[in-house]
Amino acid sequence: MKYVLNVQLGPNFMTEDPDDYRGYVVTNGSYNLDDVIRMVKEEGVETSEATIKASVTRVNRKAAQLAVSGHNVNTGLVYLQPMIKGRFYDTVWDPAKHSVYVVATQGADIREALADVEVRILGEKGEAMQLFTITNLVNGNTDGYLTGGRNAEIKGNAIKIDGEDESVGLFFTKTDTKEAVKIPEEFIVVNEPSRVIILVPDTLEPGEYEVSITTQYGYGRNLRKTPRTSILPLPVVVE
Amino acid sequence: MKYVLNVQLGPNFMTEDPDDYRGYVVTNGSYNLDDVIRMVKEEGVETSEATIKASVTRVNRKAAQLAVSGHNVNTGLVYLQPMIKGRFYDTVWDPAKHSVYVVATQGADIREALADVEVRILGEKGEAMQLFTITNLVNGNTDGYLTGGRNAEIKGNAIKIDGEDESVGLFFTKTDTKEAVKIPEEFIVVNEPSRVIILVPDTLEPGEYEVSITTQYGYGRNLRKTPRTSILPLPVVVE
């Protein structure tokens, strides 16, 4: 079986060369564990969804606990390896400068799936609307951790928020409850085709969100009749 | 419950500053999915190990398949996001220059475990023996993919292979069968306290290995009576 991956080309933010493009995966949507379990169940597995979920969750939590207590863990899907961030000039652990994180690297299950991927390059450069990255302007991090009451910068292609359609806007959608919060216009401080800077409302409940932009902007002189939506590839965590 | 993570300080290969150290996690060993499932089972879960394993494996494989077909997947343990490596100067996909990979980022299960970590900084700088990284000298990659018949460089602390104890040596241990292959001395082309360069034998069966060094070297004038062993944090894949 072949898995199809659609790719669009966009600017390479890593280099200054304007002729140098990077490939960005066209996201077909996001799934959580319940979605994945439902799909596994639909393929005709006898075990109940509740048992599958309990099993996976227990194994995942145990794997996480082993990793943070100094073990390398191979779950088949990923390898987990604990790492330390920050520089040391003495032997004192300072939580303000140092932190523990877990690096996850693709495991055998992903390698096997990758062997069956067919890549299709779609569309023209500069045509597709896509959110690429979000940067917490407090520390320059792009790992999705945002700080309430501070600025964050979204980069992308054709992401300028424009048009009168009622669906247009920048949204933070809680990944657990699916409740969508529209970011008020006065919190959007830069609104350009390839860059949107927001003030992350400090009223946002801490937790995990999906960030999306819906816009009628389309590079032409006229607005598009039908708004387009793009979701940031990685969920963000508001702290 | 507190998870204890032991950290040792070692040279920072990212900077030229000799006073600048990085923290390296002291690895307590490696676990695979079977090990994790056994531990979960020992905590008193009714579901059989076989059912747990089938559930986790099906969910992991489905998550991998969804990721490589353009979805962002949140398994609770990790977020998976497909990405494209390589620069584009036109819209042609060239497997020699471009590849698909899956970025895995720590999810809620890991964040929760990290909240309960107590870090202990152990030992003196330069004292501990530890393998840090392996670099495939064909392409400079440090993701663990090695090429048979080509060189790879291991960096670490006090890793020089030295001593007459019969356990001393550099070993590639197959992660599935646990079969250990000792790398012959003539394949070890540089053998220094912080750097070992090997020729990866092209007779090694393709697959996943744990890399370890056992040595009596210890910075002093005399060899240590008891050999020490350190395992490379990430398994390698011989292609």
What topology does this entry show?
The structure is a homodimer of 239-residue chains.
Chain A: E1 3-11, E2 21-25, E3 30-32, H1 33-42, H2 49-68, E4 72-74, E5 78-85, E6 87-88, E7 99-106, H3 108-114, E8 117-121, E9 130-136, E10 145-146, E11 151-157, E12 169-174, E13 180-182, E14 188-192, E15 195-199, E16 207-215, E17 228-231, E18 236-238
Parallel strand pairs in A: 1-8, 10-18
Antiparallel strand pairs in A: 1-2, 4-5, 5-7, 9-11, 11-15, 12-13, 12-16, 14-15, 16-17, 16-18
What this model shows, in words?
Two copies of one chain form a homodimer. By secondary structure, the first copy, chain A, is α+β, with helices and mostly antiparallel strands. The first copy, chain A, folds into two domains: 31-110, IHF-like DNA-binding proteins (HU Protein, Chain A), CATH 4.10.520; 127-238, Coagulation Factor XIII, Chain A, domain 1 (Distorted Sandwich), CATH 2.70.50. The first copy, chain A, is 15% helix and 39% strand. The first copy, chain A, has three helices and 18 strands. Chain A has helices at 33-42, 49-68, 108-114, and strands at residues 3-11, 21-25, 30-32, 72-74, 78-85, 87-88, 99-106, 117-121, 130-136, 145-146, 151-157, 169-174, 180-182, 188-192, 195-199, 207-215, 228-231, 236-238. In chain A, the strands form four sheets. In chain A, strands 10, 12, 13, 16, 17 and 18 form a six-stranded mixed beta sheet that branches. In chain A, strands 9-11-15-14 form a four-stranded antiparallel beta sheet, with no helix packed on it. A three-stranded mixed beta sheet of chain A has the order 2-1-8, with no helix packed on it. Chain A is globular. The N and C termini of chain A lie far apart (41 Å). The model of chain A has no long low-confidence stretch (mean pLDDT 89). The interface between A and B is large, with 98 and 98 residues. Strand 3 (30-32) of chain A pairs parallel with strand 4 (72-74) of chain B, so a sheet runs across the interface. Chains A, B: This is DNA-binding domain-containing protein. Chains A, B: Residues 132-229 form the DUF4469 domain. Chains A, B: It comes from Thermophagus xiamenensis. Chains A, B: Residues 5-123 form the Bvu-2165-like IHF-HU-like DNA-binding domain.
